[in-house]
Amino acid sequence: MPSAGMRQCIRDVSVYLVFLIFISTLGPLQFGFHLSELNAPQDVITCKQTTVANDVASQPDSSLPQCIPMTEAEFAALSSMFVLGGFLGAITAGPISTSYGRLLAMRLTSVFFVLGSALEALAGNTLIMSIGRFLAGVGAGASTVIVPLYISEVAPPKERGLFGSLTQVTINSGILITQTLGYFLSKGSLWRIILGVGACIGLVQGFGLCFVPESPAWLAVHKNPQVAIRTLQRIRGKDSSIEEEIDGLYGAKGNAEEERLLSSVDGDTTPTPRRQSATSIKSQKSTPNVGFFQVVRDPLYQPAIIAVIGIMFAQQFCGINSIMMYSVSLLSGVLPYSSAGVTILISIVNLVTTIACAPLADKIGRKACLLLSISGMGTMSTLLAISLRMEIKVLSAISVLGFVAFFATGLGPVPFMMASELVGQEAVGATQSWCLGANYVATYIVAQFFPILNTWLNDRFGGKGWAFFGFAVLAALSFLFVGWWVPETKGKKDPDEVWGRTSRLD
């Protein structure tokens, strides 16, 4: 039976790991928060509510007006600034985190969150608010690249799928938080509180990151391997065995190398004929960083880049943002709730299902989760199209909730998880950037053209729901792509095993 001291150590390790995960995932939470922060208070912010507009007219010299008059086009441009900032953050975060470390990159995102949110909350015109949205977008886009990578490198190997799913859980939590705040604060000048909460979260994240260590995997490749080992041991606890993780970090091939690494934990660094120096290990195992464009040109990484881009396009082209961004207008009259109530209900279903399905990727595999998710969303898209065409309200409601639930089983969390498992450490940063870059491009396409295409199809063929037949077809194509091209990564030691090839010697 373990001693009281050992039980305390285990408890401390668990608390410390939870702390690391909590602080790091505040970044993805901010992504969800800022993504939907303008949804509920849109009419208040843009002076569409008559009482607010009249109040502003009576206080023309107010430094912080209760609302900011803007047209639909101006509001659309304001909203899209977050996507543009997110795209910039996504494509630059990978190289920065690879060259300078995950920790520094996460600290930079907290600065962007604080500055962006403060500008939004204190904005007196559209330009200042747009700049704030853009800065917050940079931090959010970068976080969705860096945080899944960091979590995969500090989480215990057998639970990486579970911990990896927390990225999507916290994104959904951010959406739910801002929708709930919007439900209560979308009046008068209170909408500024909604936007200001982002700055508060950014401050908490920045302070917490002062107590978070660098990724052991990054330290092993770019710094002293002994520092990486000590950091890993600190995360796991001094009484925990890290032998298998060391083997995974360095790809150790023999007992001599393993002995050297393990002995360094106890401070024994005396070279022996059977022990290599840390510098020797580093020089043998390190591979030069692979850049954003180089990873596409190198045949070794091309299959992985095709896979992550395809998965990200599948995530968006199966139609999730047609529901998450346009549910208020799409479901008007379908459910016996207000538009804000419908949005909160969908957010709750998304969050609960994501949490419930978190262990699924480690149980049945990443690829199986993707195929289950895509097939379910395709089925729900078909049912939703039929129910909208035939005006069956109950079936419409069930289809929408099922649609969101199936998204949470695979297409939500798994793509972010797999992006760091399909390539070696030297190319993870660049691959994550391509992954998120593809996500933002696909998100923009759906967000920009779904309303136009939906209206055109409904006018052309009559009735409603035609666009969801299109999403069902895209889901079928996505199913074929994942089944044919994307490999399973669960239980695989390294990218060579994932792709079924021999190790690269250079």
From TrEMBL:
<comment type="similarity">
    <text>Belongs to the major facilitator superfamily. Sugar transporter (TC 2.A.1.1) family.</text>
</comment>
<dbReference type="InterPro" id="IPR005829">
    <property type="entry name" value="Sugar_transporter_CS"/>
</dbReference>
<feature type="transmembrane region" description="Helical">
    <location>
        <begin position="190"/>
        <end position="212"/>
    </location>
</feature>
<dbReference type="Pfam" id="PF00083">
    <property type="entry name" value="Sugar_tr"/>
</dbReference>
<feature type="transmembrane region" description="Helical">
    <location>
        <begin position="75"/>
        <end position="96"/>
    </location>
</feature>
<feature type="transmembrane region" description="Helical">
    <location>
        <begin position="12"/>
        <end position="33"/>
    </location>
</feature>
<dbReference type="InterPro" id="IPR036259">
    <property type="entry name" value="MFS_trans_sf"/>
</dbReference>
<feature type="transmembrane region" description="Helical">
    <location>
        <begin position="304"/>
        <end position="328"/>
    </location>
</feature>
<dbReference type="InterPro" id="IPR020846">
    <property type="entry name" value="MFS_dom"/>
</dbReference>
<keyword id="KW-1133">Transmembrane helix</keyword>
<feature type="compositionally biased region" description="Polar residues">
    <location>
        <begin position="266"/>
        <end position="283"/>
    </location>
</feature>
<feature type="transmembrane region" description="Helical">
    <location>
        <begin position="394"/>
        <end position="414"/>
    </location>
</feature>
<dbReference type="InterPro" id="IPR003663">
    <property type="entry name" value="Sugar/inositol_transpt"/>
</dbReference>
<keyword id="KW-0812">Transmembrane</keyword>
<keyword id="KW-0472">Membrane</keyword>
<feature type="transmembrane region" description="Helical">
    <location>
        <begin position="368"/>
        <end position="388"/>
    </location>
</feature>
<dbReference type="InterPro" id="IPR045263">
    <property type="entry name" value="GLUT"/>
</dbReference>
<feature type="transmembrane region" description="Helical">
    <location>
        <begin position="465"/>
        <end position="486"/>
    </location>
</feature>
<feature type="region of interest" description="Disordered">
    <location>
        <begin position="263"/>
        <end position="283"/>
    </location>
</feature>
<dbReference type="GO" id="GO:0015149">
    <property type="term" value="F:hexose transmembrane transporter activity"/>
</dbReference>
<dbReference type="InterPro" id="IPR005828">
    <property type="entry name" value="MFS_sugar_transport-like"/>
</dbReference>
<feature type="transmembrane region" description="Helical">
    <location>
        <begin position="108"/>
        <end position="128"/>
    </location>
</feature>
<protein>
    <submittedName>
        <fullName>General substrate transporter</fullName>
    </submittedName>
</protein>
<feature type="transmembrane region" description="Helical">
    <location>
        <begin position="434"/>
        <end position="453"/>
    </location>
</feature>
<feature type="transmembrane region" description="Helical">
    <location>
        <begin position="340"/>
        <end position="361"/>
    </location>
</feature>
<feature type="domain" description="Major facilitator superfamily (MFS) profile">
    <location>
        <begin position="20"/>
        <end position="490"/>
    </location>
</feature>
<keyword id="KW-0813">Transport</keyword>
<dbReference type="GO" id="GO:0016020">
    <property type="term" value="C:membrane"/>
</dbReference>
